[in-house]
# Entry
Amino acid sequence: MITIRHAASLGTAHDGGQDLRCHFAFADYADPAHGHEGRLRAVNTGTLPAGGTYRIGPEAAVDIVTWVVKGALATDMEGFAPDALGAGGLHLASTGSGCAQLAWRAGGQGAGFIQFWFLSDTQGTTPAQEMRPALPELEDGGFRIFASGFPEDDPEEAQRVSDGAPVTLSARARLLHAAIPAGEGAAYGTAPGRVLYLLVVSGAARIDTVALHAGDAAAISGQTDITVMADEAAVVLLADVAV
# Structure
């Protein structure tokens, strides 16, 4: 089954001093029909003005993956050294047993970002932070794993060398990225009993006969294999989570 969430239907939350566009209930945005999707707790899109800061906390037992869509973000997670990421960069805040404060501050040109919140499978783990600079796109336009809680996705575990190892989630979940040329497709397969959540960041794409445009999303359940076709050059993010 494919359930579409059009961009125009998203909610707005006021959190951490900023306005966020939210796919699920979050902060002061209440939405009984869209509480979460399996173990995917939140998908939020935000835009910060130059020097603007998005600050949250305390948080625990959740992995927050932030992808910088445009501009630059400086990260500030309690107990860890601050760092900076440009467009295409990735930041993981694994809050574990608890993190009192997290913040993301935009650079001089402002910043746009997307956050995926994954519920942790284990309790009481030590908080952790990971970062990746912008990764090269795959030549075939296929899916690249940005974040994973599956050991087999770790290049060291698989005894292979990679220029873009995924950040490590504390949940058995994945976040993937694909930049698909117009007229081409990206395929992905998962295991039974899981749910997929696809977000079109830019361009236009479709799954089967279902058309999606920038900002639209699709929750996919009851099927293990999908192919995302690009009607025009498209960038998409795909979350694979337990029900």
The first strand starts at residue 2 and ends at 5. Confidence is low (pLDDT under 50) at residues 158-162. The two ends are 14 Å apart (CA to CA).
